[in-house]
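Mods, move this if it's the wrong board.
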Amino acid sequence: MTDQPDSRDDAAERMRTPLLALITAEALERDYQMVARRRIASGTPRPLGRSRWSGRIGVVSVVAVFGALVTVAGAQASRDADIDTASRETLIDRIETGRALVQAQQGQISDLREEIAEGDEGLRRLGSAVSDAEGRADQLGGVTGFTPVTGEGIDIRLDNAPYADPDTEHIRDSDLALLVNALWTAGAEAVAINNQRLSLRSPIRNSGRAIEVNSIGIAPPYLVEVVGNKDTLSANLLETSSGAAFSVLAADYGWSYEVDNVDELRLPAAPPRLRNLRSATEITESGPVPDEGGE
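Not the wrong board. Structure tokens:
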């Protein structure tokens, strides 16, 4: 019972002793015990004087070398731990840098996606505007005569009377112009005479005895093709004053005059040269403004 406090004190003392000192002390104590046991077993008396001191010096040297090795190993282990810690911190820094870079790139991708979406929307609006403009251009081209058109309508075949006097009884430019005016009034959408499409600037005039349309000579028989409502064009034509006047002329001079309904007509565009305006006038609220750039 009396040894327990001493044992506890020894244990506490060992815990307070530095590791290197504890290893050295225990190594010395074990060496002494081993040497003493060998002497007792061999019957050799304990050496006196210098021999005892030389033995102790040898043991101390061994222990010192061992302690130095332990110290070097500890320092190396500490250095390796520092290196591992530095490597780990460097790796963490690289990871954080990589994450920041990825986040920045993801932000750029998001911005680019928004720009692409805005560009697609702008392109869609532009495409819609272009489609509307093309539709209006086609519509205006059909009305003005500068775009080919296809549709139902009527055709009118005209010819002079046999043995008619060319100077007084043949169909003239004014007669065709009278018929064309009647067709526009009756609801015609497009008109062509002998495949010459009429535009707002198409002239119909005589050149000698021949008739020219778009400054191109045409000869009888005359084929007048008209795109429009085939169910109403013929009736409306006869109801117009110009149409009635042309019918009277045809009857008086004996012209052949045949009108047929057609399910599909194909009319070409007027010559492109007719598109070039020689002069233009801009209409404003204060009145017309001459175009100084015209010829």
